[in-house]
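Thread: quick sanity check before group meeting

JM: Hey all, I'm pulling together slides for Thursday and realized we never actually wrote out the predicted structure for the chain we discussed last week. Dropping the sequence here so it's in one place. If anyone has concerns about the input, flag it before I start.
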Amino acid sequence: MAKRSTRAHGPRDDEPDNERGDERGGGDDGLVRLNKLLADNGIASRRKADELIADGAVMIDGEIVTELGTKVDPSRQRVEIDGIILKAEGAKPRYYLLYKPEGVVCTADPREMRKRAIDLLTDRNAGRLFTVGRLDEDSSGLILLTNDGDFANLVAHPRYGVPKLYKVVVKGSVSDDALREARAGVRLSEGLARFESVGLRKRGDKEGKNRQIRRVFAKLGNKVTELARVRIGNLTDKGLRRGDWRPLSVKEVRELIAIAKGELEPDPVNRRAREAGPGAKRRSGPGARPPKSGGRPPRR
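JM (edit): ok, ran it. Output follows.
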């Protein structure tokens, strides 16, 4: 359990002006106000950030801090909120696409004993990263990793429109009535769960939130046995096996931001790509030809 502290980790508001830095919350000593750091990373406004700090939701170097006016050195200290480690001041924004295997969790909590998604990324220059949104431990598929809080909020927040496509395998046959009910929406404890579209194939594809998908089909009488996210915006799982990752191009980052803001329509989903799934057209077993890397980073 994290330790709670009311001790400031840097100069406080009641210290002399020459040690407080300018009105923007920073100074020549490299320290920045904690609420400003949270705001700069897209977590909340400064006022709301103060509430989060007072509520004990923010940790510095693994220690809960509740004193308002606390300052930190983002280049040397680890600041996290709800398991998300904030980007260091002046750090280069980094963006990666990972194909998360089952059994891997989406958390940046250093106390987590299970394999984390961020542990699979072997780029030594990546620095501190966190996942954009979540995929359940039992689910696989595409997950974004970054150190850019603004980007993460834009892409992951429900109020923005970045579509995600899931490939779902269920136990038993799915009736026409169940499909109609899924399209109309299924009432869960938190409200009505609806998918943008639902289609049936030999191994069906569904769009929606990965946590809700399992619960929706369980309520319809079909247990989900396999769930994989195969698309985020215009990003697909093409060329990625479970555990593989690659950096995003500048164009891909800009497209995701434009889609989230409603400035760009996502590309139509290609039927063949939807049916292929991970590992499609790959030989396996002894004597199989290794796939071309295409610049793919080496696996651990």
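AS: nice. The radius of gyration is 22 Å. The domain at 92-277 is CATH 3.30.2350.10 (Pseudouridine synthase).
JM: adding both to the slides.
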